[in-house]
Amino acid sequence: MIRWLPTLLLLLAAAPAPTEPSIGIGVVGPAVPAIIAAHPRCDTDDIPDAPARAIRTASGETLLFATHFRNRVERGPDLLHVTHRCQVVLTGAGNDNPAAYDDRAWIASPWTPDGVTIYAVVHNEFQGHRRPTLCPTGRYMDCWFNALTAAVSRDSGVTFARMPDPALVAALPYRYDQVGLGHHGYFNPSNIVTLADAHYMFAFATRTGAQREGNCLLRTSTVQSPESWRAWNGTGFDVAFPDPYQQTVLPEAHVCEPVDPAVLRWPVTSLVRHKPSRLFIVLMQDTARGSGVYYATSPNLLNWTGPFRLLGAIGEAAWTCPDPPPIAYPSLLDPNSVDRNFETVGADAVLFVTRFNITSCATSMDRDLVRWSVEIRVR
Q1: How many helices (H) and strands (E) does the chain have?
Q2: Which of 223, 109, 128, 248 is CA-nearest to residue 177?
Q3: What is the DSSP letter of 81?
Q4: Which tens digits make up the pLDDT trace of 186-196?
Q5: Could you tell me the pTM of the whole model?
Q6: SS3 assignment for 265-285
Q7: Weakly modelled stretches of the chain, pLDDT under 50
Q8: pLDDT value at residue 37
Q9: Distances from the Cα of 334 to the Cα of 157, 209, 224, 300, angstroms
Q10: What is the pLDDT of residue 8?
Q11: For residues 165 and 171, what is the distance between their CA atoms, to the nearest angstrom?
């Protein structure tokens, strides 16, 4: 407990004083392709299906992740000049047992201490609809059970493997057969940022049993230890995530308290720190018609200001023909960040999104990763 005290006191600081700087973010110019050199899709599932993340390897190469469940990595000399590679670096085991937490896996939150070893928090879906005996309706959204697990690369991202058990980072304190129809779990972790002596990320929780819906803030001092992550419970980072298949769990003791839900109204898809103001920035998307991408700011990860609209856009679920193409998964990265994990942004950055291309007045698996330049100014 003592080693957490300095950071905890910092996080529990009061909301920023009126004289503290605030920032404004604006899009500059049109959207452009995020990956250079047109390429054929490597297979029918070769699409950007997660927010863009980036790390810089020990050799100076930049890796860009925007993966599907057959995870591939874009590589290049810098963030704006990466090319697509067909090599699959990670895939889930497709295990039919929900207790394995190893069905389909998306690399969501890579982080490296040295550019050689890369630890990754993984968005892990158990897709019950692919198991008729476990999902009588056969519908994806009825039987989607989600958890966060861990993977690691020892070769600068050429290959990844699931970490040895316990590889579980975060799971609901309920088993698959205890939650009923619907999609349940902890979803889409943000990228990882560092504050004082610890690392932090957001993950979105569905309303399930004792768990309230909202954005959970998780912390660890040892990224290499999946079981070390703890979630905010309203007063401290005391929420552990025991495996409900391995032990009896008291649910009320193992759920997070969503952070500032009045501001963080939608799933956080991106988390960075603005170096000039030292404010943290999150991105979120309201997928309703007439809405778009929003940002919020915080000095301490707990007290947030916003949300402020950054980009007008529509989500796929609300899209109807002939609307402009819908988008998903907004992420903010700075090509000039000197941080190996692109945790920081400066006066200029890049907004990445997945764009759903329209064919015959319908969306499909045809998607592109696109980017806008943005300016970030202290007001």
Answers
A1: 2, 26
A2: 128
A3: S
A4: 999 999 999 99
A5: 0.93
A6: CCCEEEEEEECCCCEEEEEEE
A7: 1-19, 38
A8: 58
A9: 20, 39, 25, 21
A10: 40
A11: 14
In sequence order, what are the residues at sequence separation of 6 or more whose Cβ sits closer than 8 angstroms to the Cβ of residue 39?
83, 84
Q: Enumerate the domain spans of the chain.
A: 21-378
In order, the DSSP letters of 16-57 are PPTTS--EEEEEEEEEEESSSS----SSTT-S--S--EEEE-
Closest CA to 242 of 328, 188, 174: 174
Fold of the 21-378 domain: Tachylectin-2; Chain A (2.115.10)
Can you tell me which residue has the tokens 């552990």? 240
Question: Distance (Å, rounded) from C-alpha 357 to C-alpha 217?
Answer: 33
User: Measuring CA to CA, how many Å separate 166 from each of 69, 71, 222, 308, 352?
Assistant: 21, 22, 14, 39, 33
The SS3 assignment for 110 reads strand
Look up tokens 């957490």; give the residue: 4
Contact 65, 73 (CB under 8 A): yes
Q: What is the DSSP letter of 14?
A: P
Long-range contacts of residues 262-268, Cβ cutoff 8 Å, at least 24 apart: 263/296, 263/304, 263/305, 263/306, 263/307, 264/202, 264/214, 264/215, 264/296, 264/304, 264/307, 265/307, 266/294, 267/187, 267/188, 267/204, 267/215, 268/190, 268/202, 268/204, 268/215
Q: How far apart are CA 166 and CA 149, in angstroms?
A: 9
- Half-sphere exposure (Cβ direction) of 352: Cα atoms closer than 13 Å: 26
Q: Determine contact, residues 144/128, Cβ cutoff 8 Å.
A: yes
